[in-house]
What we know:
By secondary structure, this protein is of the alpha+beta class. It has helices at 2-12, 15-72, and strands spanning 76-81, 86-91, 101-102, 105-108, 116-122, 128-133, 141-147, 151-155, 160-164, 166-170.
Amino acid sequence: MLLDLFEKLIKRKNIKYIMTALITAIITSIIVYAVTSQHFNNKYDDLKKKYAASVDLVNEANREISQLKQKYEPTTMETVTESTSIVETTTEATTKPAPTSYDEGMYKVGTDIPAGEYIAYPHYGEHAYFCISTDANQDDIVANDNFISQRYFTVSNGQYLELESCSAYLNK
């Protein structure tokens, strides 16, 4: 439609109307661009608000996991004997409770982790993977999955569990 108008105006050699039509087309393009850009900016802001709570939840969970790891690692103590000036270093034998979460790695069920039902959560923004097999070489895979949201699975004594880009929690 706009091209037809330009063609007619050019044939008539009416420069005044050609300039008016060009300016109108430019202004229309600018308005369409501005409206479209604002629409996409609003969509981005909506998505950012929608997922902000999820990001905060994952970050908080990762902080709690780090704190639990630090809490249950053995501590080293130094004792200074005044009379002989000898420094003794001993490792405190603390009884660690069984962890309830497991990070990336391979675990033997019954040895490294207890048998039972687990729920796995991928690390923020990552595709995760779990594999349950009957041997450490994963020659006989019982179950596996690539996932981007939580997954439930059950492991039995003697099986092997491999976790990639996720953390698994014993579902009590």
